């Protein structure tokens, strides 16, 4: 956790278009029946940019095209995103389509194609309807920005839009970080993907931005799980256009911790919104592991617990079934001494000294009826800390995922 | 896979008590409301024995006691098993109770305590009711063996008993391998555990038996998954009492491959019965991966696919959703080249050359309506083969696991 004064960071009602010099649009182009399905974020000038991508062997075509754009110069001026179709496992044709989507967007904006990132989410293994995409890009050119349109255009089976905004003070200047995300299952009936788009008007060094994003993704987006699967299209992208007019940030700058903390808060906020909106979910589950040998071991155990079907169904059933938490911890490769492990739920200790502890089942049940549930595990092996977020496993999850593709 | 002539191996209707010199009993002692809850397998003489145990950090008390028994001499003459209570996470008292259970069983049989293995399955974190156990052991002494009683006594939420039997010809002698197992979730509402008990009248060298069991467990019991969790009480035990009168088997014996193949068939048969009876399951899913860099990589990918909630729900919904199989493969650390991967279902090719293949959705749907479904993946990276077994994920699974403990 990065320690900075909370005075220098403030959460606001803003969104991905709130930082200076950005606008965001969304339209319906016909990939979906009636909902918006194509969106774009545009910066008034090239922005220093960084991204992290899915580790899947089957990276989708748009991921490859975006990687190529960023390899050229680490600057982006726009990101075009469609829902309904992931353009994944689509071979040469898919790659051609993603390049074409990039080129048309660049032409529309009068910029170089390498300044455009491409992102897709939706059905795997179907070719993009390029007629709709072409029509949609023309529509985007004519359409005025409106709040929520971009956020809506990138959703698949998500039930709510996800947005965030933080204001920071850096070198006396106000700097804003905004964000939008989508994700409901890590992957869907066929709808794929977790996407995160973060914008900031900060002026910042390229390599510092890339390192910060990678480090922060590991403790935010990478610490959520809905069903344990990794999509072919996952991507988190951050753009920093420098419009705030601050002194250029780098890792030795005295206000670097403030920016990094702000970026972490924005990413964590979006990640939690995704976990809460997991397919069929009724509750956000947060698992905090303290006292591991390392932060990494704490993160792994936290994610293992929050990803356990048995823990997820127990939380759904408001059952303080700590035996299932034990099973998830016991299964990990991390350093664990049964006699030292302690498990807490809603202020009550359930397990300690390798023995069950007396606790009020009634209080525990009442606690588990909250829409946010926190499980705390103390290992007493070292100083490692880690948190993970997930959701309960419900009948609705099975229904969503067992229903036939339409 | 071990290659031997099928003439020398025959499946029969037998069970764990079929090999010469064994008997098995089961009684109701009061740990459960009315069902049988305590069972014992007895050999007429000490049997060379081997076991593999859960890798959980929180190994239950009976696991520790059994390990100690086998460390003394690698011989067992009996195994006592209770259901309803796992005697796990029960500290010093739990260990004392497991030793007492071993001592009472040994006294009843008039043998050394170190010739008895102890096994428990059921609720985690509650102390054993030793009054019931003591009563049950007396009852076992008086009770006559009857088919199915032992198998029933070791069940928790399983819906059917699991048993197997194979007859082999070894050095001209008939050798029998029998087995019983339980397991429905890897762990339950609180009911834990996968247990496997294999008996044989073969005469066999200790170290050869231990090595064969470990190797075979890795491709049978360890390749099934119902919900991805590992219990605190998992154990597979094999006893070989030599009553068949065969020439002592060792790894250089010409009929060693026959015995090993028989043991593998028995373990695989039991493992598949467990997967098929997974909590809430309607179907057995088999995933076969060919052409991996190594057998281990093939096994890992097969288990990852069969353990994916998204694949499991798709099979339940009879949806030939190969994108989800791609996602599960893509996530693995194994060597995978998207362009070389092929996916087959019910004789149809769904994916090849990194592109979707035309196939009949109707035929695929019909195929997925079978009670046994096989998914085949070809990687074309090497000669590695691996198979894994699991089941579909249904509303009933959520119901079983979200219902409050009673």
From TrEMBL, chains A, B:
Active site, renumbered: 193 (nucleophile)
Keyword Acyltransferase part of the UniProt annotation: yes
Pfam families (UniProt xref): ArgJ
One CC-aspect GO term: cytoplasm
Keywords: Acyltransferase, Amino-acid biosynthesis, Arginine biosynthesis, Autocatalytic cleavage, Cytoplasm, Multifunctional enzyme, Transferase
GO terms for MF: L-glutamate N-acetyltransferase activity; L-glutamate N-acetyltransferase activity, acting on acetyl-L-ornithine as donor
A biological process from GO: ornithine biosynthetic process
Site (Cleavage): 192-193
Catalytic activity line of the entry: N(2)-acetyl-L-ornithine + L-glutamate = N-acetyl-L-glutamate + L-ornithine; L-glutamate + acetyl-CoA = N-acetyl-L-glutamate + CoA + H(+)
Gene3D superfamilies membership: arginine biosynthesis bifunctional protein suprefamily (3.30.2330.10), ArgJ beta chain, C-terminal domain (3.10.20.340), L-amino peptidase D-ALA esterase/amidase (3.60.70.12)
Site (described: Involved in the stabilization of negative charge on the oxyanion by the formation of the oxyanion hole): 121-122
Domain of life, source organism: Bacteria
InterPro entries with a match to the protein in the record: Arg_biosynth_ArgJ, ArgJ-like_dom_sf, ArgJ_beta_C
Binding, substrate: 156, 182, 193, 279, 401, 406
Quaternary structure annotation from Swiss-Prot or TrEMBL: Heterotetramer of two alpha and two beta chains.
Job description of the protein: Catalyzes two activities which are involved in the cyclic version of arginine biosynthesis: the synthesis of N-acetylglutamate from glutamate and acetyl-CoA as the acetyl donor, and of ornithine by transacetylation between N(2)-acetylornithine and glutamate.
Protein family membership: Belongs to the ArgJ family.
Protein name: Arginine biosynthesis bifunctional protein ArgJ
Protein species of origin: Bacillus paralicheniformis
Lineage: Bacteria, Bacillati, Bacillota, Bacilli, Bacillales
